[in-house]
Amino acid sequence: MEYRRMGKTGLQLSVLSFGSWVTFHKQIDDSISDELMGIAYDNGINFFDNAEVYAAGESEKMMGRVLKKKNWDRTSYCVSSKAFFGWRGKQNKPNQTGLSRKHLTEACHEALQRLQVDYLDLYFCHRPDKAVPVEEVVRTMNTLIQQGKILYWGTSEWSAAEIMEAHRIAAQLGLIGPSVEQPQYNLLHREKVEKDYLDIFRTVGMGTTIWSPLASGLLTGKYNNGIPDDSRFALEGFDWLVRQWMEPDKLAKVKELTTFADELGVPVATLSLAWTIKNPNVTTTILGATKKEQLTENLKALDALPKLTPEAMNRIDEIVGTKPELPEY
Amino acid sequence: MEYRRMGKTGLQLSVLSFGSWVTFHKQIDDSISDELMGIAYDNGINFFDNAEVYAAGESEKMMGRVLKKKNWDRTSYCVSSKAFFGWRGKQNKPNQTGLSRKHLTEACHEALQRLQVDYLDLYFCHRPDKAVPVEEVVRTMNTLIQQGKILYWGTSEWSAAEIMEAHRIAAQLGLIGPSVEQPQYNLLHREKVEKDYLDIFRTVGMGTTIWSPLASGLLTGKYNNGIPDDSRFALEGFDWLVRQWMEPDKLAKVKELTTFADELGVPVATLSLAWTIKNPNVTTTILGATKKEQLTENLKALDALPKLTPEAMNRIDEIVGTKPELPEY
Amino acid sequence: MEYRRMGKTGLQLSVLSFGSWVTFHKQIDDSISDELMGIAYDNGINFFDNAEVYAAGESEKMMGRVLKKKNWDRTSYCVSSKAFFGWRGKQNKPNQTGLSRKHLTEACHEALQRLQVDYLDLYFCHRPDKAVPVEEVVRTMNTLIQQGKILYWGTSEWSAAEIMEAHRIAAQLGLIGPSVEQPQYNLLHREKVEKDYLDIFRTVGMGTTIWSPLASGLLTGKYNNGIPDDSRFALEGFDWLVRQWMEPDKLAKVKELTTFADELGVPVATLSLAWTIKNPNVTTTILGATKKEQLTENLKALDALPKLTPEAMNRIDEIVGTKPELPEY
Amino acid sequence: MEYRRMGKTGLQLSVLSFGSWVTFHKQIDDSISDELMGIAYDNGINFFDNAEVYAAGESEKMMGRVLKKKNWDRTSYCVSSKAFFGWRGKQNKPNQTGLSRKHLTEACHEALQRLQVDYLDLYFCHRPDKAVPVEEVVRTMNTLIQQGKILYWGTSEWSAAEIMEAHRIAAQLGLIGPSVEQPQYNLLHREKVEKDYLDIFRTVGMGTTIWSPLASGLLTGKYNNGIPDDSRFALEGFDWLVRQWMEPDKLAKVKELTTFADELGVPVATLSLAWTIKNPNVTTTILGATKKEQLTENLKALDALPKLTPEAMNRIDEIVGTKPELPEY
């Protein structure tokens, strides 16, 4: 396994990490998550990603049970949570969502309980919240750090300017700004990571923990001929993913990419994962899995890196046609 | 004339302003610029825009001569310059371009001499300069403010994150960040102003001085049937503008827009200008002109504002198809 | 016993202190360490030095057991730990070494558990870590102070410029910089303390807790005729010390020094220890010992101070030839 | 000519620059200095170095007369002065030397007059002054910047910790620290630049303007067979240079270096100059000259860079034996 510093911090994360989104509680039970986390850990993965909203808190509970049973040295891994959406769904009351000091603090406490750990290594603002002053967010995160409940804090799906605003306020107050962003990044969704964030990588030096590296599975090629019954797109509540990805244009690109992956002698999923970590501004790419074989296969992404020659990278850019154009200055 | 505060500053600028780019020295002589500036001033325009690079310094010299002759009360108008490109073109030596303290300082001195004024109201970094630390830029601009040589400083064509980085450094040092940005903005080029900058309008509150509101003249409809001999696109050294704008797709949109403007009973140029100042994040839209009639016509943009009903705005969006999609959060 | 303020802090340390490096767990058991710490304490020593890496954590555990058994008033002594090397040796994983917030925090927690104390009086960065931003180190140390887990923080074997960089960041953020450095210092290794650090003693006022005052025992004269079986140099894993010290040139100096000590009527070890605390920039010199007699003998260093007349100091400088030349300004 | 940014600043200096030390007024008159500065400028040199103490002020007066006569665009070159030693020699009274606000300010005024310029691009503290608080120095330099009398300030022959102390104070006060140091650096004097300053290049990012790149001429080989009558070492008041350099050991190294330079087919002086600018932490190497041919020859140092292959660099290190050993961490 390769490890990278998370942006300008001293923290080292494995370039491939393991996330529970969608799968935990919804698609897999304790015994499978135990098996998958074991495989991940044994292969050098040291970052396990979670959020209050994943399976309405059940995802963190399941991960907490596995972590307790595994009894790994707490210093050998990192675990995260994220607050914003709450976990009660349509029953969420005021202050049970968003980024107010009350919710950020209470959501942290709840995550610690569910995960059965004393502190989170990473704690994310799962989305921006324009109704809450950035100063309140920055101060609350710093209070949680002071209290020893979290070590680093981050953002997820914030705009570059929103991230910089948090840093501006932090600079003014002498506090710690966000050090990591969790953006979507994959061959079909590149603009944020490859264009919008360039200046923040260069200046404040954010790390990134990538979600949806396979475009919700589209880049595995498994939807090339329709939606299988046991797939994520067939799950209830994920219509928005289907709408986003099951477009003829995107499917056509994935098919062509699959052909190119075949030429390189590597599964298109592996190629797509390797492509994300080829980007030096990516700290870690989060893998989800429901089956042992799937995880084992995806862990081979590191071995596929040598296939990504400059020529191959150009060919991929031609196929997907998503490379953002950069400003002249 | 309507006046707007420039972002969060106390400065008031007329929503229409007058710029010398391209025209001064290249297309018009002292007598015409004298006439045009007179008309502008008499119609309530209080901001005259310039830059070291416009006509290699000759534009500022011409404006300086007119200002001296007019002898208007210095408190009744604002004048700007911009540094970055230098004015010696291919003869520029090291430190004669860019945003180092040496060039920003010396370029300011030179602009004051050419414009024959004691201070600039606005002083812009004409482009970002990644080779110079933002702290050096922020400190230099503040030193020039301390020395009374400039009143406000700004940026031009910086990314949202670059602008925020300047504000972050300024916050850290207790100094003044940029308070105005000069971006291109017109019906065919909207993403920066309507999407990228939204967060900085909301947080640090930048004002904007819009350049190219008519897409270098394309939105006047005068290129609808080719490039006239006496037009900007026919000038030497402006091939890049021709390449950028003379595209069939864009010309088609302009033609359709022209038809719609006819329906509304207003010239398409006037409509296009009015559309820019309809955006409350626009402080002022800079008009260029080579002829008296042209300027007089464009000054009517304010009168056309009532034509821009919600329905008309939607119709325009449909025609140009350039309205940026905003992120959900 | 004489006590000195630790640099510019208010903390008072005995000029001779007691360290567990090499000896604890490796050379001596609980009963001997109990006896030695008792002698030290009874003779007025109030600082006991330790580190996570010493005997892979066993050194801290042993000292913790002794402290618990002794049940001395917690306010009557100071205890330290140091983080950087980790304690798992070749099994160290990412984030289990270095100066990231994660390791500094977790190593502190582990040291508190091993030493069975509620807080450390001193907590050292055992080496510089160029891969971690100094800001992260400074902030983490201040967080630990805020949390009551440590009282003062320091560095060990950092360069003068690295120490000043920590103070620069601390000054910028209004935080507490390092107040003590633990450098090697003895008659054969003087440059850092007598030359490199002079400016930082004068400006930020670092205290110093000296390690290896006897050059790993070389200055006791016991290696004058080869390496005894029961000595440190005969231990496994300390080849690097042998290579560093068992050089003909150095041994010759020690022999000449031994002769001079005889003339003064004091053992060369005692003379060498006294010489370190003669330097007013030394806060405390750390003694290690495996035998009662050795410790008792070394405690007499204070009594030997009067022997170090200006003439004796000059003679010693001539013998060792290690006095650094200072810059003119 | 190649240009480099001066440390972390935006200023660009030519890698070879021209200094007046020793030569101006003492060895050459106005007509020769005019010729030499003309050659330097025409070859792309944009930095001219001076100091109050050089020839007791006469050096700056001479350079000022040449600059006035040349009438080069002020933005095309940089000029420096340095304060500390005063210029009245043994007649210096209190406050006519050192780094007090009074002397720094008055010395700046005097240098501006002698050099006949409105501002200095660089202004150096020629030595540290332990009798003056660093805060007074930092504040005075920032005041001079605010007043537009200097653009950047620096140090000369300060220790790494002294430079960092200035940066610490500047950080605390939100002021500008020194951005350039003028150290001696040549094949026989390497420790400061290659060891002591490494941390400050990495952290605060000082630029360097190198003096004595030829070890006062020793590295030209001209002293290989004794001191010529018309050489610097034969001048009155330069005995300290003779004592420093005319050592058998050093002369032997220079002779061997001369042989190696012959093998490479390049004069030893050219090789020695090229070697200094091979170091990326060197911003510019200052050339002195008394004759046209000498300057023309030395300007060829840039062409000699390709000769400095890794193998040649190793060979040179073996010959001079001055490469400093770096600490492990």
From TrEMBL, chains A, B, C, D:
Classification via CDD domains: AKR_AKR6C1_2 (cd19143)
UniProt keyword annotations, A-Z: NADP, Oxidoreductase
Domain of life: Bacteria
Name of protein: Aldo/keto reductase
Stated family: Belongs to the shaker potassium channel beta subunit family.
Chain coiled-coil ranges: none
Residues in NADP-dependent oxidoreductase domain copies: 16-319
GO molecular function terms attached to this record: oxidoreductase activity
